[in-house]
Design a protein that fits this description.
Protein name: Reverse transcriptase zinc-binding domain-containing protein
Bound molecules: zinc ion
Helix content: 55-70%
Organism: Brachypodium distachyon
Largest sheet: none
Length: about 130
């Protein structure tokens, strides 16, 4: 996705593109920040109290990994951040069955925010 050296830490956290997603996901999910793996993992032991945070962060990381593979193996090409937002949105809609019913309102709020992001005009293209 970018021209910098590739490793897992870069892909998920230190890449400028990843940082944009984490910053916007943090706002969507009302979380201070996601700067590293520990910031993501600290929400896991929550007895489903933070199910939407965990679902959204997992959906983002899975989507980014799949998207990176699509680019790496030539199955897709870069066409802007909204493609990744759209993929996260579709994945979270499919994962709705995994969400505790008492967290549906928060999930729906997150899905609405993702729909907005997916509908935005492209605004950033890497080198
Ligand atoms: Zn990068």
């Amino acid at each position: 996705m970018c021209c910098e050296p590739k490793n897992v830490e870069h892909l998920f956290f230190t890449c400028d593109i990843s940082k944009i997603f984490w910053q916007e996901l943090a706002v969507m999910l009302d979380v201070n920040h996601f700067l590293c793996y520990e910031d993501v993992a600290r929400w896991w032991p929550s007895n489903n109290n933070h199910a939407v945070i965990n679902m959204a962060s997992s959906a983002f990381m899975w989507t980014l990994w799949k998207f990176r593979n699509d680019l790496h193996f030539g199955w897709g090409k870069w066409s802007g951040l909204q493609v990744i937002w759209h993929r996260i949105l579709c994945l979270l809609k499919r994962w709705r069955v995994l969400c505790p019913k008492k967290r549906y309102a928060k999930l729906d709020k997150c899905l609405a925010a993702l729909e907005s992001k997916a509908a935005e005009a492209p605004r950033f293209l890497p080198c």
